[in-house]
Each structure stands twice: as C-alpha cells, then as structure tokens.
Amino acid sequence: FFDTTPLGLILNRFSADTNIIDQHIPPTLESLTRSTLLCLSAIGMISYATPVFLVALLPLGVAFYFIQKYFRVASKDLQELDDSTQLPLLCHFSETAEGLTTIRAFRHETRFKQRMLELTDTNNIAYLFLSAANRWLEVRTDYLGACIVLTASIASISGSSNSGLV
C-alpha cells in the first residue's frame, strides 16, 4: 500500500480527517445547537405575540430551503475541487522536502519553487471560489433574516398589541 500510494495522498487524507474531527466538528455542533435554540425561541416569542407572523413565515421558510438546497450542490462540488487541488500541493511539498538535498545538488530549486507556486495558485483559486460561494449563502440568509425581522415588525405594528407584550 505505501509503495503504490503517494505519500502526499496519505498525508492529505489523514490531515484532512484529523483536522475535521479536531477543529471543525465541535464548534460546528455548538454553533448549530445555539443557533437552533435562539431561532426557535425567537420564532416562538414572535408567533405568540403576533400570530399573523406564522402566515408570512411559511414562504420565507420555503425560500430558505431552496437557497440552501441550491447552495449544497455547488458547495459540495467546490469542496471536492478544493480537496483535489490540495492533494498535488501536499504531494509536491512532501516529495520536495524528502529530496531537498538532491534538488539542491542538481540546482533545480527555481523549477521546484515555480511548480510549488503554480500548485499554490491553483489551490488558492479553488479555495477562493469556495469562499465566494459561502459568502453568497451568507448574503442570502442575511437577506431572509432581514425579511423575517421586517415581517415581524409589520405584523407587530399592524396588529393590536397587549400592553404586557410590549
């Protein structure tokens, strides 16, 4: 297995899995739990104060569903693109580090440096597209959040309010 599989592929796989387990899952779960509870409590309080809000919440929920569905397809492909461009970069880096004395002996430093820069640029382009897609989702969800606030405000102003709910 180790003779036929490039070292960079092995390093990429283990480093990516370890990074996800150690760095991404715990904060993501904590953020998901906190955001879900905050969102549900806010919707519950607004719905209790102004039941008309529930009517407007349905189309906004449908819009949010379609936005995230559209985003997931693109995000998955962009994440795969980022991962696939990261593999050659890691392979080149590990192989260069192993053969550094040979590279210096034959004076091929500039060629290896140029190749490293090309691979880094390719990976950065993929990462930039992934980041742009994440910002796209962020703008859309912020817009929907603003629509929810606007709807709640209009429902609150137009309805008769109880002095205990103010």
From TrEMBL:
<dbReference type="Pfam" id="PF00664">
    <property type="entry name" value="ABC_membrane"/>
</dbReference>
<dbReference type="GO" id="GO:0140359">
    <property type="term" value="F:ABC-type transporter activity"/>
</dbReference>
<keyword id="KW-0547">Nucleotide-binding</keyword>
<feature type="domain" description="ABC transmembrane type-1">
    <location>
        <begin position="1"/>
        <end position="166"/>
    </location>
</feature>
<keyword id="KW-1133">Transmembrane helix</keyword>
<keyword id="KW-0472">Membrane</keyword>
<keyword id="KW-0812">Transmembrane</keyword>
<dbReference type="InterPro" id="IPR011527">
    <property type="entry name" value="ABC1_TM_dom"/>
</dbReference>
<dbReference type="GO" id="GO:0005524">
    <property type="term" value="F:ATP binding"/>
</dbReference>
<keyword id="KW-0813">Transport</keyword>
<dbReference type="InterPro" id="IPR036640">
    <property type="entry name" value="ABC1_TM_sf"/>
</dbReference>
<feature type="transmembrane region" description="Helical">
    <location>
        <begin position="45"/>
        <end position="67"/>
    </location>
</feature>
<keyword id="KW-0067">ATP-binding</keyword>
<protein>
    <submittedName>
        <fullName>ATP-binding cassette sub-family C member 9 isoform SUR2A</fullName>
    </submittedName>
</protein>
<dbReference type="InterPro" id="IPR050173">
    <property type="entry name" value="ABC_transporter_C-like"/>
</dbReference>
<dbReference type="GO" id="GO:0016020">
    <property type="term" value="C:membrane"/>
</dbReference>
